[in-house]
Amino acid sequence: MKPEPPCSEQPARRAPDGAARILELRDVGVRFGEVEAVRGVSLDVASGEFVSLLGPSGCGKSTLLRTIAGYIIPSAGEIRLNGAVVTAAPPQVRRIGMVFQNYALFPHMRVTENIAFGLRRQGKPRAEVKERVAEMLALVRLEGFGARRPAELSGGQQQRVALARALAFRPQLLLLDEPLAALDLHLRESMQLEIKRVQRETGVTTIFVTHDQGEALALSDRVAVMNAGRIEQVDTPHDLYRRPGTAFVASFVGRSNLLAVEIASLSKDAISVRAGEVEFALPRSAAAFERLAIGQRCWLAIRPEHISLTARGTQPGPLLTGTVERVAFQGTHHNVGVRTSAGAELSVRTNADLQVGDQVDMTWTPRDARLLAELG
Q1: CA 102, CA 79: separation in Å to the nearest integer?
Q2: pTM (2 decimals)?
Q3: For residue range 98-120, what is the model confidence (pLDDT) as tens digits?
Q4: pLDDT per position as a tens digit, 272-295
Q5: Beta carbons within 8 Å of 212's beta carbon, 6+ residues apart
Q6: Where are the alpha helices (DSSP H) in 140-184?
Q7: d(Cα 130, Cα 109) in Å, to the nearest integer?
Q8: What are the chain's domains?
Q9: 83-90 long-range Cβ contacts below 8 angstroms, 24+ apart
């Protein structure tokens, strides 16, 4: 059974303690006719942070980014930049730099002209524009490319020009809308490093939209996972992966098995859950929610790499038993599908040499499991 997204209002997502907030979103909503694209989003972003909006296509992340930029006026809620309300302010007064997925470079302009465009619109002196363009070319490592036009550049080089143009006027906030989506895998990985380097060198507060969990985990100080127009969880990449708060986050960020269980008993420090006829204990800290009750049905999330497989009967006290139904060799490991005695299918990442039909025991460290409220 596929978990449904939560329907309760989400609390404000706070910036790290002690950090100055540059962006504050409060209950922001965006509606297009009958379609509610963004619903009750609250988020704080601290000065100098790199925050990613991560989620599947159609979840509202790009709509939210364009709302922050001022291209879309929200139908509900409030947006503040450096403490000033800008909810209905036009883009040009927000001092926000933006890089689009297709880069949006002017094809008839040379690289230097593209980078200088915003500065010239602001009426900056010629000498200042020239100096700033030279700084930007050095920052993105494109010295010597200033006289070229976009068509004479590779995809990665075009992306660097777009980044330089967005940073040239020293924005208070940089927004990146899936800027790596059009690049091949090798170049995308290279540009991830470049974006992070530039962000660290400039210190600019950055919000990055992506549907690629690897990008979000590699680049971000914090990641906001969106689903159906809402933010489900905001956390550091490590805590997001190790301590997902909802079934959707557990499944979308990395791969996770969701095993239907029922709470059998509770104590101060432990939770006993039942899967079919099998019962096992978890630490109380494994629960992602506070209201626990005996008989409550939940999801138990466990990552494929955290499950250990051994031949049936070779170790005492297995948590579950099952039969191997598929084995896929992945070079460094095998992806194994196991059908448990209770009828659930679990995916396991292992180096064990197994064959379809093998009977196996499954164990994992209790702290690696996560108990999530069943939704829907």
Answers
A1: 26
A2: 0.88
A3: 998 888 899 999 999 999 998 99
A4: 999 888 888 999 999 998 889 999
A5: 180
A6: 155-167
A7: 15
A8: 21-95+171-251 (3.40.50.300), 255-373 (2.40.50.140)
A9: 83/21
